[in-house]
Amino acid sequence: MLVKKTMSEIFTTCEQFIRVFKIPEHSEYERLTPFNHGIGFSIQRPYSPTSRFKPPIKKDGSPDTVALIGVVYEPQDRDLKRPTLIPIRAKVSLYSRYIAQNWDYDFNDNDCPTQESVAASKRTPRPVDLSDHYFYDHNKDQLVDSKGNAVDGLTIIETLYSQHLATVDKFKGLVFRLKIRSIAEVSNICEPLASCFEWLLKLICGRTLEPKEIRKRLSGGYGPEDMKLLKTESIEIFGYKASKNVIGTYCAILLLMFVIFNICGATPRWIKVLANNNILSLATSILALAVLDHVLPTILLYLINLMHKLRWRIMLIGVKFK
């Protein structure tokens, strides 16, 4: 008689989670440490002697800086539609054991790496921090990747470590570093564009952004209530009262159109129709002022928010080493 396999319980201790990875006791990995808060662990591995990165060396000849790999089990972030699929986040980074315990290097300390090795290490390329995500499928009782394929726990750690090493490789790491540089360049473009739109908002529409909440200033999540009118005198034109910035912009547009039409030597027919109809001219002028005073600020505010949000999303992109 076949017995239907029941779903395994969600892990509640670090020890349960660590057993899934089946890390050999006698291996190149060192200092397996369960987390004090949350469910996960960290483990360290010295850098390969063949790596272009040379870690600082202590007086006894042992390396001070190692690759630190952290793996976190995050049931709180699971998709409620798939409650048995628990996200797992893995990260590898460069880690100085001495600096983790001290503010700075003290070369008179016997546990401190030597001054010569620290200087030599700084002349070598530094491995890039990497992260990746997986899942634990409690229906199948196994680790899976983002596509649902089964994956071995030790393979996750080995792959992350190997990719971390490869970021300093002359050829393998070149494309990866170009990706990082491209992301930084695009992110740097967003901020000047947002500043340009804020300048236009102030110059053309007579408005400035004054968010009450500091988080809005940081994230760029401005709302219509954050737009404040500049303390400038208002001017009334054609019965429409607006700030002098809006009126000035409208007059500048009319003057520009006049110059262009004179240079071209031809006036469009719709301009002649407006000029010969006072009521239509008045209605068009009031509508144009309303657009400059209400519609344009809304568009500029949207563009400012878009630039800030785009910058944040770009900064948070997790570039994978492939």
Summarize the structure.
With 322 residues, this protein is an alpha+beta fold.
Word description of this protein:
By secondary structure, this protein is α+β, with helices and mostly antiparallel strands. The chain folds into two domains: 14-169; 182-315, no CATH class. Helix content is 44%, strand content 18%. The protein contains nine helices and ten strands. The chain has a six-stranded antiparallel β-sheet with strand order 1-2-3-4-5-6. A two-stranded antiparallel ribbon has the order 7-8. A two-stranded antiparallel sheet has the order 9-10. The longest helix has 38 residues, at 278-315. The relative contact order is 0.10. Residues 1-6 and 214-219 have low confidence and may be disordered.
Percentage of residues in strands: 15-25%
Based on CA atoms alone, the radius of gyration comes out at 31 Å
Distance between the termini: 46 Å
Report on the biggest sheet: 6 strands, antiparallel
Summing up helix and strand content along with how strands pair, one would put the structural category as alpha+beta
The overall average pLDDT, rounded, is 79
| Overall 3D form | elongated
Number of helices, counting only DSSP H or I runs of 4 residues or more: 9
Count the beta strands: 10
- What proportion of the residues is helical, as a percent range? 40-55%
Spans of at least 5 consecutive residues whose pLDDT stays below 50 are 1-6, 214-219
Widest sheet: strand ordering: 1-2-3-4-5-6
Give the SSE order as H and E letters: HEEEEHHEEHHEHEEEHHH
Count of the separate structural domains: 2
